[in-house]
Amino acid sequence: MIAAVLVVGSLTAIIGVALSLAAARLPADRDTLTRRIDALLPQTQCGQCGYAGCRPYAEAIANGDAAINQCAPGGDLTIRAVAELLGQTPRPLNPVYGEHRGPLVATIDEAACIGCLRCLEVCPVDAILGAPRHLHTVLNDLCTGCELCIAPCPVDCISLETRAGHA
Amino acid sequence: MSELVLILIGTVLVNNFVLAKFLGLCPLLGASQRIETALGMSLATCFVLTLAAVFSYLIDTYLLQPLELGYLRILSFILVIAAAVQFSEFMLRRTQPVLHQALGVYLPLITTNCAVLGVALLNSRQSDNLVQALAYGLGAGLGFGLVMLLFAGLRERLEQADVPAPFQGAAIALATAGLMSMAFLGFAGLSRG
């Protein structure tokens, strides 16, 4: 009886220790690393970094394919946080990928809007509300200020403003 | 040496675990929709089978039998199998995240793959030494992989076929597995006995 308990107990203990040792020895879990980098990015999904969104950019950083200074909406704050996570030295934002302008929010000039729906289609976070030939409006809480809706607007009625409280 | 080759051929073709002993049918049906997933699944199962065969043989011979604790066999084998599966699970997650995602729940389910426990239990009865146990586990894994790949190939072809309505889905898969099993019966002539 005691032998049985001892055998099963020590087997369990040995296997547990061996597994946790193996887990510590193996290369870092890329999936968790991606998730942790992704959590530091501003989630604007703007694609200014050259990737389709924040998560693909985080994956590229985790794989070592992308530099950490490509996120314009995040600016120095984001670069510093990612650099700290990865143990790299922070570098200034690469101007190729745009300039940092602080937290932005899109505003539609409702007098000029013709209700064409083009900005709805490009919005990565579905923050624009509208129907065909009715004027559209931006849901401020959801808007990430990604600038993607500016270019498709045929009457240039969308502008970006600094978010209130972040002047 | 020739004995090892015999064990390997025997477990891969003659006494194939899936088609002759009918162990491990769940992953055969569950993870064989695409050849790539089937390949990943077979590699993972083969790895787990070999590892589990070796370690369970060691535990059985040097721990359980001297202490006359044979009744703990199933419990300790399942422990070993679970650890081997866990190990291959995080190996895969860290090195092949895409494959890991494709295999999904079938990867941890290798733990309950009856072929794995079957090999461990049969090993304690038939194998005389560690090398034989290893060959038996490896052979079972290779046999499983062979059947998995053949079956996945057949199923990929069947996707294009015009299957009668009552046979679609699981029914045609089971019929295919049955026909394969009959085909593998032909290998029975290879064995001496």
Short descriptors:
heterodimer; A: 167 residues; mainly alpha; 3-methyladenine DNA Glycosylase II, Chain A, domain 3; Alpha-Beta Plaits; 2 domains; two-stranded antiparallel ribbon; two-stranded antiparallel sheet; 5 helices; elongated; B: 193 residues; globular
Number of helices of chain A: 5
State mean pLDDT of chain A (0 to 100 scale).
83
Intertermini distance of chain A: 73 Å
Which geometry of chain A do the CA atoms define?
Answer: elongated
Count, helices of chain B: 8
Major sheet: arrangement of strands of chain A: 1-4
Order of helices and strands of chain A: HHHHEHEEE
The CATH homologous superfamily of the largest domain in chain A is called Electron transport complex subunit B, putative Fe-S cluster
Topology, number of strands of chain B: 0
Low-confidence segments of chain B, ≥5 residues, pLDDT <50?
Answer: none
Provide a descriptive summary of the structure in words:
- The complex is a heterodimer of chains A (167) and B (193).
- Chain A has 167 residues and is mostly helical.
- Chain A has two domains: 71 residues, 3-methyladenine DNA Glycosylase II, Chain A, domain 3, CATH 1.10.15.40; 60 residues, Alpha-Beta Plaits.
- Chain A has five helices and four strands.
- A two-stranded antiparallel sheet of chain A has the order 1-4. A two-stranded antiparallel sheet of chain A has the order 2-3.
- In chain A, a hairpin with a 7-residue loop joins strand 2 and strand 3.
- Chain A is elongated and about 85 Å long.
- The mean pLDDT of chain A is 83.
- Chain B is an all-alpha fold.
- Chain B has one domain.
- Chain B has eight helices and no strands.
- In chain B, helix 1 runs parallel beside helix 7, helix 4 packs across helix 5 and helix 4 crosses helix 6.
- The relative contact order of chain B is 0.21.
- At the A-B interface, helix 1 of A face helix 3 and helix 4 of B.
